[in-house]
Amino acid sequence: MNGHDLLLSYTVFCLIMATTPGPNNMMMLASGVRFGTRRSLPLAAGVAVGMAVLFAATGLGLGAAFAALPALALALRVLSAAFLLWLAWKIATAGPLKRDHDDLTILGFGTGVTFQWVNPKSWAAAMSAAATYMPESAGFPTVAAGAAIMAGVALFATTLWIIFGTWLSRFLHAPRRAHAFNIAMAVLLLASTLPILFGKLAV
Average pLDDT for residues 100-120, to the nearest whole number? Predict the structure, then answer.
């Protein structure tokens, strides 16, 4: 496979991983519903930066450390499960839409960055991408280029989910509908994560 084909294949891989349902996109959808597009963009930017940093760290050897230290991978699973259960609870109990005075304050740039380190789908994507598309001799410029592509694709995909959530919010101002949506988002968040979390962290 020549360089152009490899780049195209890698970009398509990133696009598929970034656009399909998962913890990031369920969080984006919920944020778009509750906060609207503009207020949710820092979260999307945080996810993009977090994915780039995670991919770069994996490409530079962090993935090998997890393979060599099973206890470290187990600790990550436990931390991921605890955080995701807490996040699902916060979403499920968020109450009706009140964009002017919303108490769901966990969603922002910092959350987007740090969440990638406990997001099993992000780990699976980063490790798969590094193992499949990064040669063993890849230096920092190659890894940085791969990280930049992943960040750009992630920002594009998460913004689409936010816009969808903003559009969906017009149908959710009734408290009963909002409550049903919150429960559904919490369930989908866990359903899209647990199979990855309790399967192999590195694909």
Answer: 76
